[in-house]
Specification:
With 207 residues, the chain is α/β, with parallel strands linked by helices. The protein is built from five helices and five strands. Strands 2-1-3-4-5 form a five-stranded parallel sheet, with helices on both faces.
Length: 207
């Protein structure tokens, strides 16, 4: 069993979900990363497709933004409490199936306490979290990716073609050292992340 399933709330994590999806596709391949609006083809029967991908995934990343817990429907109910809520049900199934469930806190978000969560997903509050700060995605995404290497097979890349140029005097450059994390993502780097939101022009069943 392999693969990463990205769980997020529309209106409170869609941008971070796209950033994460793009990075994970590079490392693990698009076939090993599920994000509903990219992976689900137009006309597909959404619920069965969703559960099929979740069942075949070994890791569920739960993206939690600052308003993740408080977003409500038109009747004033918290979305996380509404029967049939995809975010709730994906987390519940992953916990029940004993998948690796990792909360990913977006920007200033905090991990909810057990008493704030519906009973069926209260265990989420006991899971070690990571952090994805959208303005510093260039720092945090590599750390998240590194943590997932223990659970998801890395995509095999085509060997580089040989050239007529002489090899460097001291051999090929060595990969950089791996970063570690302790409840949040910390790494070295610079630059700003950008997102092409046109990729999400298609609709989906998620709320």
């Amino acid at each position: 069993m392999a693969g990463v399933f990205i769980n997020y709330r529309t209106g409170d994590g869609a941008v971070a979900a796209v950033l994460l999806d793009e990075k994970l596709k590079e490392v693990f391949g698009p076939e090993n990363v599920f994000r509903d609006r990219r992976t689900t083809a137009p006309g597909a029967h959404f619920p069965p497709e969703l559960w099929r991908h979740l069942e075949s995934s070994g890791v569920l990343l739960v993206l939690i933004g600052p308003n993740w817990l408080s977003l409500s429907d038109t009747d004033g109910r918290r979305r996380i409490d509404v029967p049939g809520d995809y975010v709730h049900d994906e987390i519940h199934h992953a916990l029940t199936w004993r998948r690796t469930v990792i909360p990913v806190l977006i920007d200033s978000a905090r991990l909810p306490a057990k008493e704030e969560l519906p009973a069926g997903i209260a265990e989420l509050a006991e899971r070690q979290f990571m952090q994805l700060r959208v303005p510093y995605a260039h720092l945090d995404l590599p750390v998240i990716t590194e943590a997932l290497r223990a659970h998801v097979p890395v995509r095999r890349t085509e060997p580089q073609r040989t050239t007529q140029q002489a090899p460097p005097a001291y051999g090929a450059p060595q990969p950089g050292s791996h970063s570690t994390y302790d409840g949040c993502a910390v790494a070295n780097g610079s630059g700003n992340a950008t997102v092409n939101q046109n990729r999400d022009a298609r609709g989906g069943g998620r709320q």
